[in-house]
Write a structure and sequence with these properties.
Mean pLDDT: 90
Distance between the termini: 59 Å
Helix content: 40-55%
Largest sheet: 3 strands, antiparallel
Oligomer: single chain
Number of domains: 2
Radius of gyration: 18 Å
CATH topology of the largest domain: Tetrahydropterin Synthase, Chain A
CATH superfamily of the largest domain: Elongation factor Ts, dimerisation domain
């Protein structure tokens, strides 16, 4: 099947995948972009699972202070190498996650950190399960998984703190 370069470009913009990955997904999906996106997501999950066991000891601390200076967040996000920690994509991920923490007030990073017997809704209380504020169709876990697939390294959010004046 012949795939147009416009379709490949559109799929790359939506997925962040490489040219050949996009082309192959479009061929498998018979030219349907939404179906190709699902194929790429499934492939990314396989890549992510392979990388999850690798240690993530490098990274950075990112802060976000909301306009007006009344709310702020500080996060530690880790990756495998300092080379990746210095990339613009990793820095952007860290900034977006810090903004999420400031906006959504999560209680913990992941569901296994919720206190036993807690009645809090995990999709509200756990950062990784929250819908991403810039795209409600994906969660923070999906956002991190996309970054893992793009950057080729394990990435994890270790901890965060949220501050609010008078809070």
């Amino acid at each position: 099947m012949k795939v147009s370069t416009d379709d490949i470009r559109e799929l790359r913009e939506k997925s962040g995948a490489g040219v050949m990955e996009c082309r192959n997904a479009l061929v498998a999906a018979e030219g349907q972009i939404e179906k190709a996106l699902e194929i790429l997501r499934a492939q990314n999950l396989v890549k992510v699972e392979k990388k999850k066991s690798r240690p993530a000891a490098q990274g950075l601390v990112e802060c976000y202070v909301h306009a007006g200076g009344r709310i702020g967040a500080l996060i530690e996000i880790n990756c495998e190498t300092d080379f990746v920690a210095r990339t613009d994509q990793f820095k952007e991920l860290a900034h977006n996650v810090a903004m999420q923490v400031a906006a959504m007030e999560p209680e913990c990073v992941s569901q296994d950190q919720l206190p036993a017997g807690s009645e809090a809704d995990p999709k509200v209380a756990c950062l990784m399960l929250q819908p991403y504020i810039r795209d409600q169709a994906i969660t923070i876990q999906d956002l991190v998984n996309q970054a893992i697939a793009k950057l080729g390294e394990n990435i994890k959010i270790s901890r965060f703190a949220r501050f609010e004046v008078g809070g």
